Amino acid sequence: APKHLTVAYGGGGQVKVTGTIAVVGASGQATGTGAVTLQDGRIVVTMTSASAGGITVTQATANDALGFSIPLTGLPFGVTLSGVSVTSSGISLQGRSGGIVLGHAGG
Q1: Among 57, 32, 58, 37, residue whose Cα is nearest residue 47
Q2: Cα angle 63-22-72, degrees, rounded to a multiple of 5
Q3: What does residue 7 show for φ and ψ, rounded to 5 degrees?
Q4: Nearest one of 39, 55, 38, 58 to 47, comparing CA atoms
Q5: Other Cβ atoms within 10 Å of 91 Cβ, number
Q6: pLDDT by residue (tens digit) across 61-73?
Q7: Considering the entire predicted model, what is its pTM?
C-alpha cells in the first residue's frame, strides 16, 4: 500500500483502509472497506464504502483517496496467479506453475 495508507483486515473478506481524504477543499482522516482482486498482473484494492468525520463519501472519492494497486512483477518463470483472498492473517494469493522439471539426484 502507499505509505500514506494503513491497511488491515476489514472482515467479510475485505480490507479496511485508513488515510487522508480531501473533500470540497478540506482534508481529514477517512476509513473505508474495499475488495481485493487480481487485474492484469496487479493486486487491486477497490473501495466499496468510506466515511470521513462520520460523513459517507462517494465511492469515486473513496477510490481516489484510498484505493490502490500493487504490480506483481518478478514472479518465477512459469508461475501464474489465479486468485486472491483476504483473511484475518493477510492477503493470500493463489497460483500455479507448470513446466517444472525435477532432475534425478545422484548417479
Answers
A1: 32
A2: 35
A3: -120, 135
A4: 58
A5: 15
A6: 899 989 999 998 8
A7: 0.80
